[in-house]
Amino acid sequence: MKIGIIYASVHHKNTEKLVLGATKGLGIDVFHVNEIEDLDFSNYDLIGFASGIYAFKVHKSIYQFLDMNPILPKEGILIYTSGTGGDRYVKGFEDRLRKSNVRLVDTFECKAFDTFFVLKLVGGINKGKPDEKDIENCRRFLMKYLEK
Q1: What is the full DSSP assignment across the chain?
Q2: Taking the alpha carbons of 86, 88, 89, 93 in that order, is the dihedral positive or negative?
Q3: Radius of gyration over alpha carbons of the chain, in Å?
Q4: pLDDT digits over 3-46, tens only?
Q5: Above pLDDT 90, what percent of the chain?
Q6: Do 59 and 8 meet the contact criterion of CB atoms below 8 Å apart?
Q7: In which band, very low, low, confident or very high, does the pLDDT at 122 lie, cut at 50, 70 and 90?
């Protein structure tokens, strides 16, 4: 299965650390959302989106990517990092994917270092996250799609 992952990682590079570590040596194509120009995603079987959570949503650059790329694989996955964890961020993104005719088939999330708003006053939460265990868990998550 040919997989491409588009990621956005802004403040602490948590998502970048997770995705680049998890995909190393797997043959998955990984693209920073701001570095994609005229790439044909129709050759991919599965498209992944990876993002930190910013103001309770996937980063706006991922939404902009969706607006500018109408031809995408029919199935997608979401990988995200956040300070608080949980799946409450998925529904809005899933709805947006549906408008692009992409069905969200699975998600992976892990907690990550976060200094948003008042958390900055206490030095942040989840220091050291994502860690090697998180990277390995994400790697296993991705490998199940490579085996299909």
Answers
A1: --EEEEEE--SS-HHHHHHHHHHTTTT-EEEEGGG--S--GGG-SEEEEEEEEETTEE-HHHHHHHHH-----SEEEEEEEESS-SSTTHHHHHHHHHHTT-EEEEEEEEE--B--GGGGGGT-BSTT-S-HHHHHHHHHHHHHHHT-
A2: positive
A3: 15
A4: 999 999 987 899 999 999 999 999 999 999 999 878 889 899 99
A5: 65
A6: yes
A7: low
One-letter amino acid at 57 equals K
| More confident position, 88 or 142 | 142
**Angle (nearest 5°) at CA 140 between 134 and 143:** 140
Which residues are CB-contacts of 74 (< 8 A; sequence separation ≥ 6)?
101, 102, 103
pLDDT band at 119 (very low <50, low <70, confident <90, very high): low
Q: Which residue has the tokens 């409450």?
A: 88
| Apex 106 CA angle, 69 and 140, nearest 5 | 110
